[in-house]
Protein 1
Amino acid sequence: MRIGLRTILLAGSLVIATILLFGYINNTPAAYAQAKQERSTAEVKLDNFSFGPAVTKVSAGTTVTWINRDDIPHTVASTDKAFKSKVMDTDEKFSYTFLKAGTYPYFCSIHPKMTGSVEVQ
Amino acid sequence: MPNKEWEQKTDRARPEPDHDGIDRRGFLKCMAWAGTGAFCVMQGGVLKSYSLSSLGELQKKDVAGELSFVQISDSHMGFNKPANTDVTGTLKAAIEKVNALPTTPEFLLHTGDISHLSKPEEFDTVDQILKGASVKTAFYVPGEHDVLDDDGKQYRERYGKGAKGSGWYSFDKSGVHLIGLVNVMNLKAGGLGTLGREQLEWMEKDVKKLKSSTPIVVFAHIPLWSVYPEWGWGTEDSAQALTYLKKFGSVTVLNGHIHQTMQKVEGNVTFHTASSTAFPQPEPGKAPSPGPMKVPAGQLRSLLGITNVSYVRGRHTLAVVDSKLT
């Protein structure tokens, strides 16, 4: 009886270990990236000192990526300080995932005449 | 403040007297654009503009005085886009121009955007090049490119020791009171350059003790007059700063940021913007955006330059003379 119980416990531990191990293997960067790609995305271009589109409408959970196509560095800074990029030189990118519904106005903190917003539904 | 009342001079200009000679309030006339070969001198309430060909003669006769200093601006060290792939070379050329002046200036003002991306090596390169200048004292104010990602911490450590707040300060030279202001911090969405309450309060106190006959020079990166608000070329609260300077007979405001020379006279105040040593930017509204302007090879250096400022005791205003790199 004792040995039997020990065997069951050992077998159970092995099963748990296998599940954990499988979970870990399945969580490789490649698998993670695949899962991420399935999430919705949107892109905003910074060009000629303006954000295009100026208003981006997305659903909650969407990752928005800004890319700077100007010869001058810009930033993306949320007006209510929810997010702020580091300075983005030409062709550099910044991404932020919007989890909650709402309107998120933002601007370039270097050239504050550049403004835009993300509307999350 | 009125804007858009400036006009462009595209050709050689002859000496031109003021309309009334005494009351110059609201008088807007002289516009000196980079590369056009014109520059302006205001003396005793009379405006004179000359072609660059008379520069040598003028420097000896009229511009030399009690105080002479030079302004450079917008060196954007680290910029490497087609508009200028050699900003190191053009900054060196600007310093050679300074070194070639008939009289060594007493000091140099750099009105910001020293670096392009606030990188330590960019500041280092500029410091190294300035060591080659005949003039050994330099004063700085930050541009928005100098305070990226760190709220200006590095800038203040390098150039703002002893300065107040985000880097403003004042000093006296040969009877002239100079005030360096910071208008590139805490910019608000949709807005222009900002001085802020703390700096304005400091400035009010700073000038209160001065006699109204003291010549004042104010320098800051973004123009302190509304050059073109649509492109952010102005400062939200500059009008407040200028009210503190109303009692003074001579006020000269020197700025950078717009990468072209422009001059305006309004009442007791002469506004002047300097060329960049790195790349030109378009004239207000003449392009879709204020981005770097690519010009045909060979023309670039005629659109970059330095500004020489002289003060002659007893004269009403300071003489401001631009010269290009070629």
Protein 2
Amino acid sequence: MARVVLVTGVSRYLGGRLARLLASHPDIERVVGVDVIPPPDDLGHAEFVRADIRNPVIAKVIKAAAVDTVVHMNVIATPVGAGGRSAMKEINVIGTMQLLAACQREPSVRQLVVKSSAMVYGVSPKDPALFTEDMEAIRLPRSGFAKDSVEVEGYVRGFARRRPDVDVTMLRFANILGAGIDTPLSRYLSLPVVPTVMGFDGRLQLTHEDDALDAVQTATFGNAPGTYNVSGDGVLMLSQAIARAGRLNLPLPTPVASVTRDVVRRFGLIDFTSEQIEYFKYGRGVDTSLIRDQLGFVPKYSTLETFDAFLRAHPLGRIMPWDAPDEPAPVSSIGGGLA
Amino acid sequence: MSDARVIPLNPEREPNDGGASFPGEQQLAGALRFLRRRLEGSYQVDDFGFDRELTRDVLVPAMRPLYEKWFRVEVHGIENVPADGGALIVANHSGTIALDSLMTQVALADHHPAHRELRMLGADMVFALPFVGTVARRAGHTLACNPDAERLLEAGELVGVWPEGFKGVGKPYSERYRLQRFGRGGFVSAALRTRVPIIPTSIVGAEEIYPILADAKLLARMLGVPYFPITPTFPWLGPLGMIPLPSKWHIEFGEPIMTDVFTDGAADDPMLMFNLTDQVRETIQHTLYKLLMQRRSVFF
């Protein structure tokens, strides 16, 4: 089967790696990567086309290359490097709208894979321990990347209704972490003194960047469209993550925490939304049994292993005197986390 | 959170590392190892945030004196709780703060032959509170909602639910041992769907620990809490008023009500659910009366 794949957002870390990976796949004839700026790294066998998905010109690219599969990786999590929050929102929301509009017009498009986020489930103390794909947010996200993701998913669902012949897959990733990726979470955990909200400790779930790429690839080749949660097995408490990193945990009372957030934001260190503060307070878990059952996708790294891999790749310089943590003994966890 | 609390580990669970040069050396070494693991973050929690090691070695031991010395809890019918597999403990709720559920957790951890861990379903308010919510998750509790209950039961966990909720813990002393409404029967549907037995559990003694004479409703509304208790000692004696009265407790685990005898669609039959809810409620109410008849005094 001839496959021509369009990958959006190839100048960002994951998009670039994905384009390279797909281009080296024997079943794939051609990979066209698009972004507004040239990719910092070599894309291998993939071609780069400088095109803005916010512009109707993207339709011409799809038509000219007779693209049959569109992999939308250009939903970005951080305004740092995107040129601010309003630019980020435009890339995420308007970009997705334009891209989908172009896909809708092109009969050659047979498949759409979208990188979404587990943040669409929102955060609240009334959340179930693990979200399955059919559940809705108890408290809908109201700002930032989380809100963008909700809107992107809305447009993708609209597209799926209008083009029922296209196989649509959405992957809701838990926080992606790894050696190369730069996310608000990786920046937050790299602070020497990590401010947290006093009295709260969120459950974090992490996806290793290699697993994230694997999941996108599996979704691209697997014949099972749908919406899937993706995460490493198990959870990690925020306080535990800070301890493992050898950082100093600084619990702040809630009002001080929001002031600190504003300060950190003002200095452009990390963009924290109120959404993220809530996430660090309560955390969130997703059930990943559906992608296991439907696509046979099993992540190689658990949440804990992902975090330790992140630590190994980022020699942060330990503030606290103890050694790097030992390999944890495998502890059985229940629920959708384990095969 | 409770990282800084040092409570020696149970010596039975410690590897024997040679002769001790002073008494308690092994306990001390064990406690230091435990503390070090905590500070390094070398431990694991399950998907619900349950910290098995912390619960077994710190939280349950911290509650044990209250259980053994203060309330002198007597357990009846522990053999009705299965040694493995899922089961749903349903009990009456009372006592102004939910000490009854914590004592049930200690009873099952210490007195059940399989040392079963009780996973409790708590009100959403519990998880919204600072510190309380965090410790609750660490101790294995989760939100009282059907997805969580069913997930735990399917995984073969022992789940505890107090369906009266705040209506039960915050009721006035004059209504002691009179069961309140049993929610909407969500716990029955969870048990039916996962085909686990329901174990009606009756707790006597918790009603007397903080007798609520009145409820300062205005104050409660201002503080955003479901009730503000006025007891003979609280708030008059300040922090001293928070010491529970040392009543004598009995916890009776009743005969399991089997749910695997029903057909597949049983959980979607509201009438059956109401009937089962009533059956559980009646069983607990009658056991409470029986235990009260047998009780010699509130304190002995």
Protein 3
Amino acid sequence: MTHSNKKINRLTPTNEDTIGPYYPISFCDGDSIDMTTAKNGIIFEPDGEKITVTGCVKDINGNLANGVLLEFWQANAKGVYSTPDNMGDPDIDPWFTGYGRHRTMNGNFSLKTIKPGRCGDRAPNITLTIFSDGIMRVVTQLFFENDPANDQDPLLQVVPEDLRERLMIKNTGKNKYYIEIIMAGENETPFFDDLLS
Amino acid sequence: MTKLGRQIVIGPTDNTSNERTPRNRLLLIPDAARASFVPWAPRVQGLDPAEADLTRLTPGRPRAEGDPIKVTGKVMDEFGRPIKNSIIEIWNANKYGRYSHIEDHSGLQLDPNFLGLGRTISNDQGEYEFWTIRPGAYLARPDINRWRPKHIHFSIRGGSSRLITQMYFDGDEHNDTDPMRILMGDNFHTNIGKEYETPDEDFDCGYKFDIVIGGKNPTFFENI
């Protein structure tokens, strides 16, 4: 298929819309915000440093954004994502999916996970998708403060230097981390466009 | 390639939109980082086929109040390729405009036979089918008399495809003042369910709602 053909044949995408305030909570019953436990009652665990990232999502007034649905996605301790394309990769961790989902009632969250590894130029990071009343899906990536790989990370390079700090997960103690997501206004978290790019 | 990312616009008369819409333009993702933005969501296993029928709590229970409707369609990527084995979730208000959600404090009438939430999985052709009750419109902003038109919420996930949208009804008197509909502009037609007759069946009518998931995400991994 040539480039021009592609353009002609493309269908008009259905507009994204807000998730609204009433996403059924029971649809989240099987969800987990603990990526360190592959399955209940199984002795095997993923490799790597177990960490807890606590945080919150706030609105333009500094109030907690209640009822937001959060999706987390990350590589394993060796920097490999678990996707259908790399099932045979020897560095895949069979006990780590890298996917977590959580509806936060009040805007706070506490993610239990494995510290993601570096992958080539990419510094350790966690992708965060936010679904909220009032807006369409927004996405960003969170990094670890003072990680030596941050300086070369190609995504951080496109973030204005003075805003990079807003994407940094801060170490607050042994295996403990913290980040605030500001959806709008002063100190707004940088978000990325995964529709146009 | 576009030079700039989108500027998300605030939905007029929508307080939450004003509070939560990023004011800065979205940043474009460089190619070297693009794949890392595509989650591979594990699929939900073992759905009960009865979950696609919202008109009854369980088979054999009384039918909910209001007009039973079919909602059917096909989930595709921008090239028309079916998105199969995706989990499709819908949720909608009852005929009075009330959700069964614990945080709906509107006080509108509940229907004990209507939960208003259902799930199914798209088949090999990307097709899905739900039975539900035509939802009622409801007054979302009593202070300015602004209504939400009749609508059904949709979520598509599983694999690398991800979309949350709403199906609207053609001709609803409240469509034109809906904040999100206003933002959709000329593309609003993609969010309208196309009415069709369901002769000799126990439904008021059917609505065909085909869903096209845009962007690169749905095509990142093999659609298995």
